[in-house]
Amino acid sequence: MSLPAGLELVAFDLDNTLYDEGLWYDAALPPIAAHLATRSGHPAPEIEAFLRSTLRANGRHYHHLFDDALREIGLPRDPHLRELLAIFREAPQALEPFPAMRELLADLAARYRLGLITSGQAPVQARKLDLLGIRPLFAAVIFSSTLAENKPGRMPFERLLAEVGVEPARAAYIGDNPLFDFRGANEVGMLTIRVPNPELDTLVVPDGWDARLRVTNLPQLRSLLLQQVA
Q1: Are 118 and 142 in contact (CB under 8 A)?
Q2: Residue 105 shares a structural domain with residue 84
Q3: Is 15 left (phi over 0), alpha (psi -120 to 50) or beta?
Q4: Among 45, 65, 120, 178, fewest CB within 10 Å belongs to which?
Q5: Which of 30, 62, 90 is the last residue of a domain?
Q6: Are residues 83 and 34 in the same domain?
């Protein structure tokens, strides 16, 4: 594998690309279950077990986890969903990137401009970046849920390229999820690179949705991005 000549911008997805999103759920689900127990009278361990089984069945990108839990225990969506989202947003007190990822980002920032495009609720994603302590490394951060078109559409990638002032042919985007990360980047002409995610490694997606390149581990990604340029 080799990079295109003149690469200037290396951009990333956030969840399960730079850190394990499971850490967030591990911190958030127990207080959410406890909160729902006080509101419903159902035992907190049973509620947490339901949340975790729903998450396992549908994956971490499932957007109706709390709706399903409220329906299961017989509570209305309003006002309880707002309460759950507030707990979810504030629950973790610390996060760490994947091992060696912090060092890789610092090394990349010495050679390239770095960008980040992340979907999900902007306040939650912003707090993740703050807890990870990596936001200063990025020249531009795009919260695509705030745009008229979210990932995997083209708009977030076009916005990033415009903010940084880089042509698509001189930009790469790295993510883990072919359902969300690569279609728009492919369409605008960026190089796309897929990192491993055990939940998604065997997923079959339509033509144009997967990355152009795949790496199997972080050392391979490091070698690819920091290869010596003749």
Answers
A1: yes
A2: no
A3: beta
A4: 45
A5: 90
A6: yes
Bridge partners (DSSP) listed for residue 191: 172
CATH number at residue 172: 3.40.50.1000
How does pLDDT run along the chain (230 residues), one tens digit per residue?
678 789 999 999 999 999 999 999 999 999 999 999 999 999 999 999 999 999 999 888 788 999 999 999 999 999 999 999 999 999 888 999 999 999 999 999 999 999 999 998 899 899 999 999 999 999 999 999 999 999 999 999 999 999 999 999 999 999 999 999 999 999 999 999 999 998 888 888 999 999 999 999 999 999 999 985 53
Distance, C-alpha 141 to centroid of its chain? 12
> Is residue 3 included in any domain, yes or no?
no
Say how far apart CA 226 and CA 230 lie, in whole Å.
12
3-class secondary structure, 212: coil
Residue 145 DSSP one-character state: G
- Give me the residue label for tokens 């911008």: 9
Instruction: Give the residues across from 174 on adjacent strands.
Output: 12, 193
- Please state, in angstroms and rounded to a whole number, the distance separating the CA atoms of residues 35 and 120: 23
> Quick one: 133 and 44 in the same domain?
no
- DSSP annotation of 170 reads G
pTM equals 0.90
**Cβ contacts of 198 within 8 Å, gap of 6 or more:** none
Q: Which residues contact 57 (CB under 8 A, 6 or more apart)?
A: none
